[in-house]
């Protein structure tokens, strides 16, 4: 089931364009162009890349609750349409909606939030929304998935300015639960696991909130992983987006 209540934080804001610093990148990713992933955005805080996010319409960005729940709204900006995370047109935020069931504690459920922009995005070849799944839509296990972001290339690693992508696979719900019995636990209702069995590819710090995509549909949001990043036998854990479609639609209507 999905809790439909939410926590809303509001403030007046506008858009601005300034060069910013970066903080991170994906493990064993390759450089890509934003034109190939135009739904991808950088969520920045105090002038530095903090998390990823995905465009769901002209005003709204989907991200992880842990990226935004404990930080002041005034410090946030969103960078759409840019391959390089230090340059572009930075959008200010009007409000943030955090799932009311998110606590920040194990087992890390309901790690989802919507960022509402002060000004609408102008869609182009570099800025487009991502398609979301149907409510409780099943995801075939072993599906090839694409993860994009600017996260660390390893735990304690070096920053990367250019958008990265890595291809990984979706684990079955049973595998996800069994592999994270001690580190989570995960739940097939709330979570998806994705990675590669041998480790070495996937998410790390700075990738949180970013989209996991299968066949052009966003099935997951980067939530957490066992450290060090991409450890063999411990796939990354993502929010299962299909569980939250009603919550997303409800909060978009309220806006």
Automatic annotation (TrEMBL):
<dbReference type="InterPro" id="IPR018114">
    <property type="entry name" value="TRYPSIN_HIS"/>
</dbReference>
<dbReference type="InterPro" id="IPR043504">
    <property type="entry name" value="Peptidase_S1_PA_chymotrypsin"/>
</dbReference>
<dbReference type="InterPro" id="IPR050430">
    <property type="entry name" value="Peptidase_S1"/>
</dbReference>
<dbReference type="GO" id="GO:0005576">
    <property type="term" value="C:extracellular region"/>
</dbReference>
<dbReference type="Pfam" id="PF00089">
    <property type="entry name" value="Trypsin"/>
</dbReference>
<keyword id="KW-0964">Secreted</keyword>
<dbReference type="GO" id="GO:0004252">
    <property type="term" value="F:serine-type endopeptidase activity"/>
</dbReference>
<keyword id="KW-0732">Signal</keyword>
<dbReference type="InterPro" id="IPR001314">
    <property type="entry name" value="Peptidase_S1A"/>
</dbReference>
<dbReference type="GO" id="GO:0016485">
    <property type="term" value="P:protein processing"/>
</dbReference>
<keyword id="KW-0378">Hydrolase</keyword>
<feature type="domain" description="Peptidase S1">
    <location>
        <begin position="26"/>
        <end position="253"/>
    </location>
</feature>
<protein>
    <submittedName>
        <fullName>Chymotrypsin-1</fullName>
    </submittedName>
</protein>
<keyword id="KW-0720">Serine protease</keyword>
<dbReference type="InterPro" id="IPR009003">
    <property type="entry name" value="Peptidase_S1_PA"/>
</dbReference>
<keyword id="KW-1015">Disulfide bond</keyword>
<keyword id="KW-0645">Protease</keyword>
<dbReference type="InterPro" id="IPR033116">
    <property type="entry name" value="TRYPSIN_SER"/>
</dbReference>
<comment type="similarity">
    <text>Belongs to the peptidase S1 family.</text>
</comment>
<feature type="signal peptide">
    <location>
        <begin position="1"/>
        <end position="17"/>
    </location>
</feature>
<dbReference type="InterPro" id="IPR001254">
    <property type="entry name" value="Trypsin_dom"/>
</dbReference>
């Amino acid at each position: 089931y999905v809790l439909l209540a939410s926590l809303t934080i509001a403030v007046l804001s506008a858009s601005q364009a300034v060069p910013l610093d970066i903080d991170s990148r994906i493990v064993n990713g390759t450089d890509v162009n934003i034109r190939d992933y135009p739904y991808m955005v950088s969520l920045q805080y105090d002038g530095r890349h903090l998390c990823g996010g995905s465009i769901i319409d002209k005003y709204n960005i989907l991200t992880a609750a842990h990226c935004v729940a404990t930080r002041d709204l005034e410090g946030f900006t969103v960078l759409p349409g840019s391959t390089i995370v230090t340059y572009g047109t930075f959008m200010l935020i009007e409000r943030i909606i955090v799932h009311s069931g998110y606590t920040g504690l194990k087992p890390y459920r309901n790690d989802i939030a919507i960022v509402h922009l002060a000004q609408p995005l102008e869609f182009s070849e570099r800025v487009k929304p991502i398609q979301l799944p149907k409510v409780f839509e099943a995801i075939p296990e072993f599906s090839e998935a694409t993860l994009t972001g600017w996260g660390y290339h390893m735990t304690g690693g070096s920053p990367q300015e250019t958008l990265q992508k890595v291809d990984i696979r979706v684990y079955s719900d049973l595998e996800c639960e069994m592999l994270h019995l001690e580190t989570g636990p995960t739940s097939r209702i709330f979570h998806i696991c994705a990675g590669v069995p041998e480790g070495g590819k996937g998410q790390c710090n700075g990738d949180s909130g970013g989209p996991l995509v299968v066949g052009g549909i966003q099935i997951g949001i980067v939530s957490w992983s066992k450290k060090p990043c991409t450890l063999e036998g411990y796939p990354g854990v993502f929010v299962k987006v299909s569980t939250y479609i009603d919550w997303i639609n409800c909060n978009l209507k309220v806006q």
